[in-house]
Amino acid sequence: MLQPIVVGVDGSRESVAAVDWAARDALRRARPLRIVHAQEVVPQQDEPTVLPELRVPQYWARRVLCGALDRVSERYSQVYVSAEQIARPPIPALVAAAEEAELLVLGSQGFGGPGGRLAGSVAMAVVGQAGRPVVLVRAGYTAGDERLPAAGGRPAECAPYRDVAVAVDLSHACASLLEFAFQEAERRHAILRVIHAWHPPTLRTFPAQAQQDAEWVLASSLEPWRDKYPEVTVRARAVEGRPTHHVLELADAAGLLVIGRETHRPPIGGHLGRVAHAAIHHVQCPVAVVAHG
Questions:
Q1: Domains of the chain
Q2: In this structure, are residues 90 and 122 in contact, taking their beta carbons and an 8 Å threshold?
Q3: Burial category of 196 from C-beta neighbours within 10 Å (exposed 0-12, middle 13-18, buried 19 and up)
Q4: Of 70, 100, 237, 261, which has the most beta carbons under 10 Å away?
Q5: 51-102 pLDDT per residue, tens
Q6: Going by C-beta distance under 8 Å and a sequence separation of 6 or more, which residues neighbour residue 121?
Q7: Residue 91 half-sphere exposure toward CB, CA atoms < 13 A
């Protein structure tokens, strides 16, 4: 059985953009799409005695799910889509749904955005705990934004995809991160841009030698993936300094940014590093967070 693409919805503009992105990704991957709305249900007694205000969350959940389902059916008729209400708190429900999915997609409000609850603290908590890749999508991000400007009067959907960008920290195992990034570039027939930020190991290290060493380590790490995905054009750079600035700069022209999250995490909640936090809060394109060792 094919694992679905799962998208969480809450009725916000961010979740609408997430639904659209997830539907397009389901087409790219030839996977079914599962739309979920998670909400803890207050125990009820006999239906006739239930207060009207207690029924409001149920009506809202149905409306959100039906709206998302209708949207996908209208715009992406080739996608096999289902919708489900999960009677659990959002964070554990979405983390559990991710384990049964190939990919989880959520809306992202970014820095200081007015988005829904699912696009804010809930999304951050899920990203920090999910074992499967999670893609965060900003409100208003469209199919046209995924592609380069069309030239010569061609339809926008025929234009090439924007680059896939990935930031790697070679001091950690990053096989799952690189495989995800190469696969995404291959599906889109897009250029893959890889960045690795390095620091001089000692004060006595000559900068030129340290740069050469970092480039050699990066090239060696990418070699098996280049062999596995020969159709993917790779542009790789090793850069000195803190990675956050370089990653944000790299993402400016990208259609997807891929970053890692260490699976080693504190006893309560998950762990997101500075680069992941900065990317989620400031990058405009979708951000894929991939758990790795």
A1: 5-138 (3.40.50.620), 152-292 (3.40.50.12370)
A2: yes
A3: buried
A4: 261
A5: 454 455 677 788 999 999 999 999 999 999 999 999 999 999 999 999 999 9
A6: none
A7: 13
